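Subject: Interface between my chains keeps coming out wrong

I've been trying for a while to get a sensible model of this assembly. When I model each chain on its own everything looks fine, but I need the whole thing in one frame so I can look at the contacts. Pasting all components below, labels as-is. Any help appreciated, I'm running out of ideas.
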Amino acid sequence: MTERRIFEHPIIDFDRGEEFYFDFEGRKVKAYEGETIASALYADGLTKFTESKKLERPRGFFCAIGKCSSCNMSVNGRPHVRTCVTQVEEGMKVKRHGAKPDFPEKDIGRGKDRTEKDVEFAIIGGGPAGLMAAITAAELGGDVHLFDEGADLGGQLVKQTHQFFGSHEEDAGVRGIKIGDDLVEEAKKRGVNIHPETKVIGYYEDRKIAVERNGRFEVYQTEGIVYAGGAIENYLAFENNDLPGVYGAGGVQTLMNEEGVVPGEKVLMVGSGNVGLIVSYQLLQAGVEVVEVIEALPEIGGYQVHASKIRRAGVPINTSHTIVKALGDEKVEGAVVHEVDEQWNKIEGTEREIDCDIICLAVGLRPDTGFLRQAGCEMEYIPELGGQVPLRTEEMRTTERSIYVAGDSAGIEEATVAALEGKLAGVAAYEEITGKENEKTESLKKEAKDGIEKMRKGPYGQVPRQGVKTCTVDEEVCG
Amino acid sequence: MSESAGVVVIGGGVNGLGTAYHLGKMGYSDVVVLDKSYLGYGASGRNGGGIRQQWTSEENIKLARESRKMFEALNEELEEDLEFYQGGYLVLAFDDEEAEEFKENVKRQNRLGVESEFLSPEEAKEIVPELDISQVVAATFNQSDGTIYPFKVIHGYANRVREMGIDVREHTEVTDIVTEGKEIKKVKTDKGDIKTDTVVNAAGGWSSGVAEMAGAEIPNVPVRHEIMVTEPFERFLEPMVISFKHGIYFSQSEHGNIVGGIGNPDEEPGINQKGSLWFMKEFSDTLLDFVPRFSSVNMIRQWAGLYDTTPDAQPILGSVPEVERFYQVNGFSGHGFMVSPMVTKVTAELVLEEEPSIDIERLRVERFEEMDIEEEGAVVG
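Reply #2:
Try treating it as a single job with all components included. I did that and got this:
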């Protein structure tokens, strides 16, 4: 098996730690300090990570961010460990166990002790929205705790090697990875208590949040919450869509730009929105061949500038095309696509096979709002914002007292809006909880609101602008 | 637009759909089943799937025994694998008083044809080797008890019932039951009115509200009960394990997940289906006392449903004094699923004015005024 790690990259310098070995089913596998178990195994050539429960179909590395359970394995005797969010360690014993492992033979001895703490502000999610909310509330003097399930903060920004343009004055022309790093630095400087690798797993009444850290359960009693949990990738229905090798664009970005591991050799990209176009370009940067980009709509969805870049690199973008089948038994060995007319009907005689080992889905995002639903926030389905979103005030407060939302969880828009919403939610939450409203808070809110307004006036702001109108309610409605 | 139906069943859970199924099986399909949400939104879709015949009252033992037999035949009838796994129920006693009661219970159950056994703690440990028996005084076990997958039963019923020409409507909320004198005239819903003279109240935790709409009174009170599920494992736990003293129950589903709950004696009555932190802690702490090795296992979901409780923890069946042809099949106090085959058959028989398969006189609502009530003592969770 060829090495899947990326050692030379035009933009990213993968600063790998020490090289060591761990045990995978009785075999020594190489890893570098800082890698996750799943990425070390993927780099070593593993494609089948577990099996589906009923039909025992192979399951591969899919979401890369701890959400899909397709990479669960036994680690040092503990079953159901999400290997994509667990750092590999020297000498670790890792074993696949399919969907149903044996009941663990030893008691790992977690006992009944639990941590319970009181905090003022809990910010959930360390992407641009959550970081800005945390920075802003801390700058005003709040006791702020920021929770993120990943080891590194920055959300999706840290996977973006391209330069942002046009929008946020300070950040235009800066690469995503840099913006993410800067925000994390700023948060630290402002005294935000950062809790990495800490997954918020539930909301309990009276603004308590439950988190999991190192396999243990902890509870935080909060006074105010800003939820900035981001988005979930949409999936697409086609035959064999569960084969290892069918990945979400976010998973591919994580693997490639955070872990420094290429997903495969030949990629079919499905979807020509900005994510599809940008990830195609990132694949090229990482030395991976993109055989084709297909798009079901008659036009390319993303910015022309991104489309031109990959076309110049020789990647064809075929609109009015859809995927109907992934080929292969244990992993992707090709795909079947055909053309569609404007009513989405198949055009006979256009079916063809594509030679690829990776099918990357970039077919949109939907807001991740499970936490807010659990907290009792009123939700509404707003297609312009990508799905179910919470009703909220202009200042990002949901229908539940002291619970705020920002970023993609409030509706799918781009990173600058997310950051500005975070800033707005951070100030508004601070005002509500501390009762302190002053010139400073007013001016911060104005800055954020003006920025958001400006963004939504742009050509790609029209659709979300419409959606936001529908889900924005008066203070009175929110109670 | 006004339409009509011979029978309107309120509640798309196991007892509403079961009643419709038996009506259909008896050749009567002029039935509409209504649910204000999705099928199984109430306790039918939120319970632990336990099927137990080890009860204390004669009524419950008989209902459970007959229902167990009917569940055994239901796979074939519904053409669906309902995942009925008869790994038994292991009931643990933690003091001598409980042990004495268990002895009596076993005698009564054996007399009524339920083959339960009285066991020593060591015999209990043979059935569940992981069990910590240091505090256990005795146990009872009945092999033909077990667990079933509730959603498969609900959807199995719904599919068969629809094939029989019965109308099952989700997201249709009953807003009123119009009566004239003692007669039912129509059922009003948020999607229009249905003329009918017969209503079956199978609304679970919402039953007393539905009765009120018809001008009838039943003493049912909804109380939240919570439940959780862990990650899946190869089967290592055969029976459902329960303790009345701790209010806990847990079993392993056919999918491999441990499913279990614990009752909160201080729970405030009312309609509340949110998961609580109290449950999370209390259940996991108690579970670790029973099986310490569970500390290696993660809970993946918790949720809550409503017990539709009555003063004697026994169901309410049959008609009511205030209104004619208004049949109750509710008040199950946490064990409505396991007795559903028999109680729904009897309800269908009452609706069609046929001789009921079992005597339900002691389960009518009038018992709360007329008779001495015998409280069911074997309620868990």
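Reply #3:
Confirming on my end. The interface with chain B takes residues 53, 78-80, 99-104, 106-112, 114, 202, 204-205, 208, 210, 215, 217, 219, 374, 376 of chain A (CB under 8 Å).
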